[in-house]
Description:
Blueprint: H1 3-6, E1 9-12, H2 16-28, E2 32-38, H3 45-49, E3 52-57, H4 68-78, E4 82-84, H5 94-102, E5 106-107, H6 112-119, H7 121-130, E6 138-139, H8 146-156, E7 160-168, E8 171-176, H9 182-197, E9 202-206, E10 211-220, E11 226-238, E12 241-247, H10 254-270, E13 275-284, E14 294-300, H11 307-314, H12 318-326, E15 343-350, E16 352-353, E17 359-360, E18 363-364, E19 367-369, E20 376-380, E21 387-388, E22 395-403, H13 406-419, E23 421-423, H14 429-437, H15 439-443, H16 450-453, H17 467-492, E24 515-521, E25 524-533, E26 536-540, E27 553-557, E28 563-567, E29 570-576, H18 584-587, E30 593-595, E31 600-605, E32 612-613, E33 618-624, E34 627-632, E35 637-642, E36 649-650, E37 655-660
Parallel strand pairs: 1-2, 1-4, 2-3, 4-5
Antiparallel strand pairs: 6-9, 7-8, 7-9, 10-11, 10-13, 11-12, 12-15, 13-14, 15-22, 16-17, 18-21, 19-23, 20-22, 24-25, 24-29, 25-26, 27-28, 28-29, 30-37, 31-33, 31-36, 32-35, 33-34, 35-37
Amino acid sequence: MTIAAKLPSILIANRGEIACRVIRTAKRLGLRTIAVYSDADAEALFVQMADEAYHIGPAPARESYLDAAKILAVAKAAGAVCIHPGYGFLSENAEFADACAAAGIVFVGPPASAIRAMGLKDAAKALVEKAAVPVVPGYHGAEQGADFLRGEARRIGYPVLIKAVAGGGGKGMKKVDRPEDFDDALTSAQREGASAFGDARVLVEKYVLSPRHVEIQVFGDSHGNVVHLYERDCSLQRRHQKVIEEAPAPGMTPEVRAAMGKAATEAARAVGYVGAGTVEFIADGREGLQADRFYFMEMNTRLQVEHPVTEAITGLDLVELQLKVAAGEPLGFTQDDVEAKGHAVEARLYAEDPEKGFLPSTGKLWALSFPHGEGIRIDTGVEAGDTVTPFYDPMIAKVIAHGATRDEALDRLGAALGETVVAGPRSNLAFLKKLTEAEGFRKGPFDTGFIDRNIQALGAEPQPLDAAAVAAVALQLEEERQVAGIVEAAGRAEGEARSPWLVTDAFSLMPRQPLGLPLTVDGERVDARIEWRGEDARVSLPGHEIGEGEHEVSLAEGEGGVWYALHRGRQTAVSLFDPFTVDLDAAAGSGGVVKAPMHGKLVALFVAPGEAVVKGQRLAIVEAMKMEHVLTAPRDGTVSEVVGEPGAQVAEGAKVVVIGE
């Protein structure tokens, strides 16, 4: 009997890229696909792909994708036989798994008992220790008093890592290097844990020096079989969030793989695991990967974001395997049957701005295109014209490359990123491209601190104006001017209105005169000058040199006269200068205006009007995509104005605090 015969219909309790991913495999297997969507996702790609789609509430996740009762009600009404939770949201919610079972609906994931056993980091560590799996030294107990935890950190020895007990994806995780920073880090970790997972509890662990993040993909079935599908290296991280993942892990030896694989499968067996899961280890990479220098971190009881690299090297469809196991069938293969071929690398393309501390970026995708070369796979949940909202994870796509060797896979990934176009929200495209080319990453050794140590070389800091990008837009604007002039000239004979673009010499037989073009470039005034040499127009920018042989610049038109120029993966927003849109605070040289760097929620204010502050002092915290961003004083002075209050939404660029002299 086929999977479709046993599980004829599936509801995907998720959104975006992973919903699209599950729908593709489910349709290939012949299942009827059912989507659920929030207000923000009414026109989303996954909604269009599904056979049926049902609205479940407003944009905030707690009122839609985290509302288990609504999702189960839709599943019953639509006749869904099974529910795939994807990752995030309800995917590791034991109560939801129980509720599915009570409703007679198959939960495509492990039993609730396994989710509970591995869902809390402290309990999971205690459990795997009994199975002789090594764990990181630290405090994993129930006591949560700040004084007690501060004492435990002192006992463990700095640096330490504070981690939300129910955490994941870097949320609620803070590295602390000094005792004096512990209290602020603890408060922030607790707040992020409560916001993202509804649980403010934390644990404190020793921070492993030169850490490598290596994880093992495990799979179990209801017949007692448990295998691993090799490892993934996820050491390229920023703020404990994965950026590039690969399989197999560089420098992995058969001895270490066997030891890690055994530890991972033993951990899975200890909880009666069924389905796809990932056992994550932290390894001391100072002397390469060694069988006695890796430690259990946590088990993710769901499909991982980075599962495509495992699929690429094993040839297995992990979603199909999930459905097969959920249908009660055995895996159908043993550990000896699992073979890895070649190397695969995945880059997470996000709507974020590396030049502004990787702050999330929102807005309409005016252009979005990907290459489709040999060994390239693109997993995405958005199309050109869609909007990246502030309500969910800002992932645009996963770009995956597979090759015979690691170098070939990285070469293919770099080439694919070079051909990718993203316009509208800022993205980490240029940053990812530089990572694929970074000598330290390609030749090693590297660890989870690689990005932080090389942040400047990777371009993740304010960059100078991209003259080539500005010049390309200036030429585009001049071409529009000429077209407008032709249209206006044709219309003058019929008495039509005069085009605002037309200049008096546009159709003169005399040589065209140089043209000054006032522009706004990423919010700043820039004056361009266009000169002609015969029919060729040349652009110059006072104070900026436009190099010869520059890479091709891609242009995408937004709204309000804004053009987005993409050059080497970096975006520059250019428009004609409009004096009526000038930021008066900036024009007046008001360096004391502290603005929200992105759309989000003001979760904390630490100052009030009349208070004296010093440069670097914390003023407020803005939360976006469940991550906190601290606003600090740009100079010494006195607070003259505070806008808003904790709990209020703030728009990108909105004034939050003003500091006077």
